[in-house]
Amino acid sequence: MANGGGKTPDRFLVCGLGSLGQYCVALLKDFGVWVTAIDTVEPIAWEIETLPDAVEIGDCRDKRILDAANIRNCRAILLVTPSDRTNLETALQARVLNPQIRLVVRSSKQNLNHLLARELGNFVGFDPHQLPAPAFALAALGNETLGFFKLDEQWLQVVRRQVRPGDRWIGRPVRELNRRSRRLLAHGSKRTGNRADRCHPLFYQWNPNTIVREGDALIYIETMARIETRSREIPIARRFWQQWRGQTWRDWRDSLARFWRRNLQHQVRRVAIAASLTIAILLVWGTLLFRLAFPNWSLAEALNVTAILLLGGYPELFGEIQTSLSVPWGLQLFGLGLTLAGTAFVGVLYALAIEYLLSARLDFLKRRRPIPHRNHAILVGFNPIGSHTIALLQEFRQPLVCVVDRPFDWERLPPIPTVVGKVHEALTQVNLSRARSVIAIANDRIENLEVALMAHQVNPEIHLVIHTLDMRFGENIAHLLPRSHVLCASLLAAEAFVGAAFGENIEHLFRFDGRTVLVTEYTIEAGDTLIGLILAEIAYGYGVVPILWQRSPQGEAQLMPSDDSRLHCGDRLVVLATMEGLRAIERGELERRSVGVWVKSALTPDAAFEGAQTIARISGCNIGTARSLMENLPGRLAIPLYYPQALRLVSHLKRIQVEAEIEVD
């Protein structure tokens, strides 16, 4: 949790210097902390410009290596090697050496992560393949939704909306768009498609008095109803009854004819059908013969004897009957024929089962769903990130097709259309010219670039989502294909890992104007840089958006809380923040307040009394300062405010008949 820092920089330890580990190092160095890294070998090539302060070569599970990395004085350890086993074993060793260290672990074992978090404490586990999947899926959809997530059983979504003619928001100041269920994040006249400068704040870069006009772009977060993503399942018995109810004899006859024609081309199936009919006839015939030969037998007994003979029970059955009954030799011969026919029928069943097992995998592609004709997503390449992306696209009921260059374990793929072959040939089979988007998600960045260029050549309007492991290469692709979404999965995941390393809980992440926004949860503790501040100071001073506030664990959580709420020890706060916002909170670096409020007059004594209350509530000053100001009008508020805060204060004072105006330095 943010503590304001000290003279000596905090120490952090990163285990594993793959792509994810290197981006974790780079992001940590942006916070001005000391970073030590551990890996079995030193990287041949660095993907980052800012290197760790020290590198230890060896097994991070080794106590001596951890001691050499000064783990006992580290604030957090980020375990991001490719092996879940190594990461979890190292986490246990690190906790023994430093009981207070923050453990941030790369692990796909979600259940084990929850158990360890409960037992060890100060532990968080992330699946780096799952974290970036929403960014890929939402970029592929190419619609107004930028992100969606759940907080305390309430779904929220981030929406980009283009103001069209006749929109009900035209002519209203943008400040009026904020409601208890909605918060404005950005406003611009022609912002869609532009990439934000990472040096500038992402939020609150608009004048609250600006009037919404046709063509403006609005980005906001709002509450939403529960996402219904699955169709209602009909019980099998009811579905069967609905299908066959009302069938006439002609319908039954046609269905039987179609069944026979469909199976006529399979020799084993033809034999199996003929054998089944023969066995059924023999069963009826045998039952009648035994019933006639032994009038004292019931029909069930005769049927039972015939079935036993068909299942190969000739020696046992007639051995017992001969002791008590005289069976005609012709009937015995018929019984032997039944046994031979039954044995042959069992052999046919074995052959049918073997044919099914052998052809199941070979017929896999033929049995898959047909390729969509238009408005579908095409996923080229398949890996764990692709698997999570497919699952999310299916949640949105987005038609899609997967293209892979070679067969593999098909059970890993969900039931979607799949084309196997060379990429440039496979793309000609997936209706590329009418597709909605292409997701080039392979681990080979050159192959992804080739796919993107081919797709752009065939369909210049298609949404391109390109995966890269090197952001420098990705920035070059972005210049080559300006309308594309170039995403580095390692960087997206690293931002969540680093945010969690400072003690925060990263609930979700999404992309917004080319930058990553982290849904971050704080629990306010003594000594935090947030304690004692009102939400307006946190929002405008640190450049984050508070979306949930809860007064103590027993209090009621409030979505889109008021700017006037003040944080106390034990409170819970969830904000939307970029890495720059998290860094500002960690360092306690509030933006300078530069706007003054000049209070001219109050029309009545009641207005003066209520004005003092309003000033104290909105500005955050103590009530004594506010009353002193109202008793000595005209006068200037003793503390400067942020512009949106000052504008809101003047507006509220006007409602209670107190005249005031803004003074900007």
From TrEMBL:
<dbReference type="InterPro" id="IPR036721">
    <property type="entry name" value="RCK_C_sf"/>
</dbReference>
<keyword id="KW-0175">Coiled coil</keyword>
<keyword id="KW-0472">Membrane</keyword>
<dbReference type="InterPro" id="IPR036291">
    <property type="entry name" value="NAD(P)-bd_dom_sf"/>
</dbReference>
<dbReference type="InterPro" id="IPR050721">
    <property type="entry name" value="Trk_Ktr_HKT_K-transport"/>
</dbReference>
<protein>
    <submittedName>
        <fullName>Potassium transporter TrkA</fullName>
    </submittedName>
</protein>
<dbReference type="GO" id="GO:0006813">
    <property type="term" value="P:potassium ion transport"/>
</dbReference>
<dbReference type="Pfam" id="PF02080">
    <property type="entry name" value="TrkA_C"/>
</dbReference>
<dbReference type="InterPro" id="IPR003148">
    <property type="entry name" value="RCK_N"/>
</dbReference>
<dbReference type="InterPro" id="IPR006037">
    <property type="entry name" value="RCK_C"/>
</dbReference>
<feature type="coiled-coil region">
    <location>
        <begin position="432"/>
        <end position="459"/>
    </location>
</feature>
<dbReference type="Pfam" id="PF02254">
    <property type="entry name" value="TrkA_N"/>
</dbReference>
<feature type="domain" description="RCK C-terminal">
    <location>
        <begin position="507"/>
        <end position="591"/>
    </location>
</feature>
<keyword id="KW-1133">Transmembrane helix</keyword>
<dbReference type="GO" id="GO:0008324">
    <property type="term" value="F:monoatomic cation transmembrane transporter activity"/>
</dbReference>
<feature type="transmembrane region" description="Helical">
    <location>
        <begin position="271"/>
        <end position="294"/>
    </location>
</feature>
<keyword id="KW-0812">Transmembrane</keyword>
<feature type="transmembrane region" description="Helical">
    <location>
        <begin position="333"/>
        <end position="358"/>
    </location>
</feature>
